[in-house]
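Q: What does the predicted 3D structure of 14-3-3 domain-containing protein look like?
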Amino acid sequence: MCSSQSSRSRRRDTMSPCLAMVQPKLLLTNWKEMVEHIKIIARMDIELTPEERNILAVGYKNMIDARRASRRTLYSLEQKEVAMGSEQNARMVVDYRKSVEDELTRICNELLSVIAIHILPSSTAGESIVFFYKMKGDYYRYLAEFKTGNERNEAADQSLKAYQAATSTAMTELPPNHPIRLGLALNFSVFYYEIMDSPERACHLAQDAFDKALPELNTLSEISYKESTLILQILRDNLTLWTPNLPGVASKNSTVELPFGGWCGGLGREHRTRVERNEIGTCMAVVTTMGSRKQEAMVGEHGCNE
């Protein structure tokens, strides 16, 4: 059993008993069970280690991404059934879509509650604060993807505030080439493009992050260098997708060769998913495209996840 620590927000140098329980489950990819164990740690009101926050981020991301994909598929199917005049089939699809959306709502609200009540109040390191405000922004954004009316407005507003809080801390605590700061810029730009319908702000944010990080890449460690260059590639690819929607605007990025394969340049709208894994076998990076949709990513312990 995992006991509480007496010192609030105390950093730990050794693996917690709960984390030791979780690590074998990484091989089984039982995300729901993994998340339950990490939530036990989070509710101790102590600052999570980078490894613990990575497991929390990967676990929730894998739980929610399948449902987000299902909801998009069901929504498209619903539109087709309506267009064909198949009202009965359309109603069946709507019912199923709503059940998936209920699951998404439950999962998002569950994590947002843990972040607000336990994790953020216990976070003292700038890296952790940025990480979890970014995660808060992400999960409110996921709600805004399918909510309507006042619920959508509230989710979008909360997402914006969280991203702004993360950005404010990142500007003072993390260098421009830091993977967490770059991941924040990536996801914040996606928020502007998809939720706020503002390609101008999305492109400005992505371009600014790219330009500031690029000259300082060589100062990073090998692992951070790989993570940051991957995020730069995703930023570049998103700019390639987004700038055609801006009259008279063209991307000015230089092409940057990646040491681990691929190019930090526009790869076009269709390429296969690429997965990198870190030393404990968890998802380090996932890059996908869906037609003209933006790129999505999760990078290592920094949890750069769209």
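A (community wiki): The structure tokens above were generated from the sequence. Confidence is low (pLDDT under 50) at residues 1-11, 17-28, 250-293, 299-304. Residues 207 and 252 are 9 Å apart (CA to CA).
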